[in-house]
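Table 4 source record.
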Amino acid sequence: MRELSVVIPNYNGGAYLGPLMESLRAQSLPPAEIWVVDDASTDDSVSLLRSRFPHVRLLINEKNFGFAVTANRGLRAAQCPLVALLNNDTVIDAQWSLEAIRPLEDPSVGSVATRIVFYENPDILDSAGDIYLPGGIALKRGSHRRAEDLPAEGDSVFSACAAAAVYRQDALAQTGLLDECFEAYYEDVDLGFRLQHAGWRCVYAPAAVCCHHVSASYRPASRRFHFLSSRNSEVVFWSNLPAGLLLRCLPEHALLLSAQWLDKMLHGHGLAFLAGKLAFLGRIGLVRTKRKEVRRLSKLTDREIEARMAPRPFRLLLDAYKARRHPLGV
């Protein structure tokens, strides 16, 4: 099973699409099809694709819907048994597709997290998959660290960052696609949670290297980023943790929220963070619906789900904070 569809959600990514398309053209295992879903761009993205890359299958949204809706439109259109999501501001190594699908030879693997590095400094990781803290926060594993600091062989992670991920279509058919109510941020973690509940593994593929112009498409300094991340992280926490584990994690959740709020206040994003938490209260009905779906999917015990999350959350948060301030740990 080596046939791969590639889906690229795009909004005003004309400056980046050319290098990405050239890197896809240079793959040792070329994708069987490439879908670009344009989210009502106002730049030259569409004309560039039509003139320079006519082989690309192009879908155009009539208005701007955001990442989750746009990505899902491409995922529904993809015809191959394996499908990759790539951000429009990425460039992939020539062996990326070959190495990214290799872990899926194991039938227990439902998704693959690839090695995402900073375009400006490819020795430094942006993400080696996601880890999830039981207190309700997802972190990029290995972010701002050297790639060689992580295991050379692929190992299990909690979920794949949708900037450069591969999914088994059979797994997505079982769990559903990205939740479009999220718009953007945490939607890939939420999908990862459903895949975990359904018993699928997510594996890190360190030899599948993707260079990422981090935040070129979505600006982390914007109010919208902090609002959506704050709201959506609550939806993930309250929707996906089994009831017993949820109750045990509430004190930890409260402590993590306090630490987050203080950090956001110090960096000028406190109001957006609080607005996101208040907006979550309007999503209680969504949480109830999602919890029913999780119970339907779940094949793992509470203890097995907890074992797939990260222990020692405050140590991990401290390490992540230090890594952002001093990327090489100095």
